[in-house]
Amino acid sequence: MREHTGKDSFCKFQHQLFHSSLGHILKTFKPGIAKPQVVPFGDGHHWHVIYGIGPYIADYEEQALLTCIVCNWCPQCLAYCNNLDENDTLQCCRDHTEILIAKFSLAALWEEYGIVGELIPFTNDFLCADIYELIAPDLLHQIIKGAFKDHLVEWVEKYLHHTHGDVCANEILDDID
After folding, report:
1. Whole-Å CA distances, 62 to 53, 59, 93, 95, 141
2. Helix (H, G, I), strand (E, B), or coil: what is residue 93?
3. Are 110 and 70 in contact, with CB atoms under 8 Å apart?
4. Half-sphere exposure of 177 toward its Cβ, with a 13 Å CA cutoff?
5. How would you classify the pairing of strands 135-137 and 56-58?
6. Could you tell me which residues are beta bridge partners of residue 38?
7. What pairs with residue 49 in β-bridges?
8. Cβ(132)–Cβ(93) below 8 Å
9. 131-161 in b/e burial notation, b at 16+ Cβ within 10 A?
10. Residue among 154, 142, 153 nearest 60 (CA)
11. Helix (H, G, I), strand (E, B), or coil: what is residue 119?
């Protein structure tokens, strides 16, 4: 298996296995997603309930895997990878992606749209689930890592260099690591 690790075909196999596994795990919920079920509630009443798949919180790497996009492309909008700051881009959706996959070659999908056309998202097995609408950024991780951890580490390093000089500060930082 190790000899296949770096190959594109093996990587795509692993990604599709991930999607297939999620689809298999969630298939027990399909009847409740497709047809209303009568469920007793705590207040003694019975209500018709239709279940759905809620937000999927993930970091960028997992979002790229979930939405079957090429790395460095946006998992939520159609902005070109070199112009992610564009404000008036359309949002990604399952129907649009399926039309692109039907019309373009795999190479064109990869280069022009940032779509990995060989992969089928696990949400395609569910009627009312669109992975582009379900993914949510991992804000807690981004805040802790970006705003708190990185900022705090940088501030402490500057403080140590300013207070103790470069040589002593580097020794202190080496002890911390």
Report:
1. 17, 6, 18, 21, 13
2. coil
3. yes
4. 8
5. parallel
6. 48
7. 37
8. yes
9. bbbbbeeeeeeeeeeeeeeeeeeeeeeeebb
10. 142
11. coil
Spatial separation of the C-alpha atoms in residues 131 and 127, rounded to whole Å: 11
Phi (first) and psi of residue 31, to 5 degrees = -60, -40
Residue type at 119? L
**Residue keyed to tokens 């949400």:** 123
**CA 65 – CA 142 distance, rounded (Å):** 18
Average pLDDT per run of 10 along the chain, which is 177 residues long?
69 91 90 88 93 86 90 84 74 91 94 91 87 82 65 84 91 83
Q: How far is CA 147 from CA 107, 122, 152, in A?
A: 38, 33, 8
**Which residue is associated with the tokens 């009568």?**
38
The residue whose two tokens read 């895997």 is 65
